[in-house]
UniProtKB/TrEMBL annotation:
Tetramer of two alpha and two beta chains. One of its GO terms (molecular function) is tryptophan synthase activity. The lineage of its organism: Bacteria, Pseudomonadati, Bacteroidota, Cytophagia, Cytophagales. InterPro entries: Aldolase_TIM, RibuloseP-bd_barrel, Trp_synthase_alpha_AS, Trp_synthase_suA. This is Tryptophan synthase alpha chain. The gene is trpA. It comes from Pontibacter mucosus.
Length: 258
């Protein structure tokens, strides 16, 4: 298991703030600035989105940011190039999130090797089926010491959650509802029942809640049920505001934390 992720959850079992951003958005070369600014403002864990032209689980905000990033010229090789020296500047846990197709095109082993080389700690591929992971990916992820992070939803059966828990080595991404990212309805009562059900299973991996976390209230509500929460669409929106990138990042993160 990746030591940075393990260390984070050991040192801070509750209240983990994770932020997602799309690499190459708003501008192609913002990646390093965004990472360092988020860390400076007290974010614990980062998810770097690898833009893809057909993102199934993403709501309109992240889809639009993906489109812009691709237009800007973001690719997997470009992203790895941007991350080449990141570990000389920060030790914050970094997770790459994206879809299977671009990873397959890049080459799975080459991708894992390169991710490990630049200091990536974990990978989230929402459209990679569990069975395919076990048969084709597991060995490579273990070889390159990459945590595989799986998503579960309120519809995931208990047996499946337990299987995912046994295959996970980092944290489990608990999708708060069965819809796409960026819907800001707060955490519904049915979600609460699901969070309690998962908590009652006493899994070996910590859970982090994502989808619909967009402000201080939803972040704090999610943290009562899990080790932390992930903010994606709301942060991507904040990056589009007028003014400097670092100011926008600072004011957004402060609105969540303070």
């Amino acid at each position: 298991m990746s030591n940075r992720i393990k260390r984070l959850f050991a040192q801070k079992p509750k209240g983990i703030l994770s932020v997602y951003f799309t690499a190459g958005f708003p501008n192609l070369n913002d990646t390093e600035t965004i990472i360092l600014e988020l860390e400076k403002n007290g974010v614990d864990l980062l998810e770097i989105g690898m833009p893809f032209s057909d993102p199934l689980a993403d709501g309109p905000t992240i889809q639009a940011s993906s489109t812009v990033a691709l237009k800007n010229g973001m690719t997997i090789p470009k992203l790895f190039e941007q991350l080449q020296d990141i570990r000389q500047k920060t030790q914050i846990p970094l997770v790459l999130m994206g879809y299977l197709n671009p990873v397959m095109q890049y080459g799975v082993e080459r991708f894992c090797q390169k991710a490990a080389e630049v200091g990536i700690d974990g990978i989230i591929l929402p459209d990679l089926p569990l069975q395919q992971y076990v048969e084709e990916f597991k060995e490579l992820f273990e070889k390159y010491n990459l945590s595989k992070v799986f998503l579960i939803t309120p519809q995931t059966p208990e047996a499946r959650i337990r299987e995912i828990d046994s295959l996970s080595n980092g944290f489990i991404y608990m999708v708060s509802s069965a819809s796409t990212t960026g819907k800001t309805v707060g955490l519904a009562e049915q979600s609460q029942a699901y969070f309690q059900r998962v908590a009652g299973m006493q899994l070996q991996n910590p859970g982090v809640i994502g989808f619909g976390i967009h402000d201080k209230d939803t972040f704090e509500a999610a943290c009562t049920h899990a080790s932390g929460a992930i903010i994606g669409s709301a942060f991507v929106k904040a990056l589009q505001r007028e003014g400097s990138l670092s100011e926008n990042i600072k004011s957004f993160i402060q609105s969540i934390k303070n």
